[in-house]
Specification:
FAD binding; BLUF domain-containing protein; Acylphosphatase-like_dom_sf; binds flavin mononucleotide; blue light photoreceptor activity; BLUF_domain
Length: 130
Amino acid sequence: MTQLLYVSTSNPSGAKIDLPKIVEQSRHNNALDGVSGLLWSDGKRFLQVLEGPAESVSTTFDRIKGDTRHHAIVVLHQRAITEREFGTWTMAQRRADDTADDFDAKMQRLLRNASDTVRGTFLGLIAARA
Ligand SMILES: Cc1cc2nc3c(=O)[nH]c(=O)nc-3n(C[C@H](O)[C@H](O)[C@H](O)COP(=O)(O)O)c2cc1C
């Protein structure tokens, strides 16, 4: 299996990002394709880890790269894994009533099985944007 971590920026010239729509599409496709992982966004930037069979991750990422809703896509990390670090695919969003501590606890939970690299990248980017 492969694990891939990338960062991107929402397209300023594109339509307003409809996160629920992206989540719905992703949840559906990723379940079919055996892709698990985590997507974080603050509405302007995205950080996503995808993992699963190499072929599935590659076709999913090809679709994501071609999506005009975001740009400046940079792969931060890609490696072979023997076990999944994320059992399912999910989106991490800070709700309006989440305190910084609530959201931090939520992220720690979502990242509990992640490698140091993946956990560090998520927590580092989120802290930098807080
Ligand atoms: C930031 C971002 C993350 C996305 N993540 C996924 C994903 O994990 N899986 C997926 O199938 N599509 C994802 N998409 C959507 C794809 O780019 C594409 O629109 C979608 O897969 C097309 O699916 P459909 O042919 O079923 O409509 C993402 C899009 C964006 C902008």
